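A favour between colleagues. Tell me how you read the following sequence-structure pair.

===
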Amino acid sequence: MVARKTSPRTIHFRLISSLSCTALIVFGCKSPVQPLQVRVPTAPPPVVSTVASPLPAIQFTIQVGAFTTIGRAERYAEHMKSFGLDAYYFVDADGLFKVRFERFDKKEAARERALALQAQGLFSDFFIIRPGPAGSRADPHQRLQESLVQTARRFIGIPYRWGGASASHGFDCSGLTMTVYRLNGLDLPRNAYSQYHAGTPVKWNDLVPGDLVFFATGRSSRISHVGIYVGEEKFIHAPGRGKRIRTAALSNAYFRPRYKGARRYY
């Protein structure tokens, strides 16, 4: 049998046909064949919760002293601080100046600590206090709201002092709110920015007494000022250098455009 000779042209045609069939199998029947485009899914943005848990409660604290002048209370608190104690003084409802320090989960732990410090001669008498709102209302939230406002009102007239958190030297805005909340058993962070991010957002129309209201009073939109809402669109705050703690209106021409929101902590 004579072998049939295949021309190079025939081989070339068959090769092209074979490749075309392969392309149809792989890519389908669309012509011309489009290059595959693989879309990589983008990860969804992280979910940031705007709901914070309630502030840690101060279960028990130690209270010492009852002074008729603020100067004596101040010196006594400074003496306690020299021993590394987180002491602060305040004007109580009875008009006397008193000193409290440290936090404890158990009453017995507070008592043991107080007895140890008493043995060192730091003080003669002491009380174990469970800070919180006074009153007999059945609704604990309403009782707390009223107590926060009443506590804040006691400090009206005290001078402003940057970085201050005492009734003698004065308060800055977040020092005032921190002290008021601490006296009511809630361990609020120290600065306005941290206080803003520790609370649960509250809409303007849902504000209740005791909520904190925040403002951006600087050149940026960063939280830089805080006050305690007392109702009727008014709040108590430490306004600035050379001024005293006072009441202001949220609708004030200065504060309204700088208002950034409100927070609740219980």
